[in-house]
Amino acid sequence: MIYSCAAPPYHRWASDWPPLAASICEAAEATGAVLVMLGNLYGYGPVDGPLTEELPLAATGPKGRVRATVWEQARQLHDQGRVRAVEVRASDFFGPGVTDGGHLAARVVPRVLRGKPVSTLGDPDVPHSWTYLPDVARALVEVAGEERAWGRAWHVPTEPALSVREMVNRLAAQSGTEQVAVRRLPSAVLGVASLFSPLIRELKELRYQFDRSFVVDSRAYEAEFAVRATPVERQIEETVDWWRKRLGGTG
User: What is the value of pTM for the model shown?
Assistant: First the structure.
């Protein structure tokens, strides 16, 4: 098996993803290994309603197009019989071990544990799907061993959508802190920050995911395979416990 989970920094996706993906496909073809790709939902672009695997990969932004192209190339090779490929797509993931990137990672959870306000990209009250990292790992392993899964993309089993504010409130309740204020970052602040931060600059393309409802539908996977989303209460408990240990006690 080849598990393709690596990714360049956001600002280098357009230049670095194509050669990275090409080399991984070449390795899969040369070895005959099943290629299991970890994808995301960027390739769909903005849509109305829940995200399903049947939607076209119609993104127009550079990061969305890169992710769509990477999968389309692997699927074409699969259809030609040159590789055996499958893609598992996750929404914004969080959980133990998620420190870099993610909207519930290093810039949010430690602040919640300290009872400090949290700033968020977009509307903090719109529904948003969060995929739990251990569920991502389980899905990757499961589809790798299921030949009937190959040749298409699947959404990782994901709990019902909760807004940023709802997730922060649950994290705060689990950590025993007072309710934490959640503030939307003003557009002007994001504009200034983008002048100095490549990450903030690249996030402009993805703001639609937090300005409107962003809900993933994982029923197709659940109808075929055994992995199920971890209950959100356990997700929150395990995430807070992991961060407490990482930060040394209460944080």
Answer: 0.92
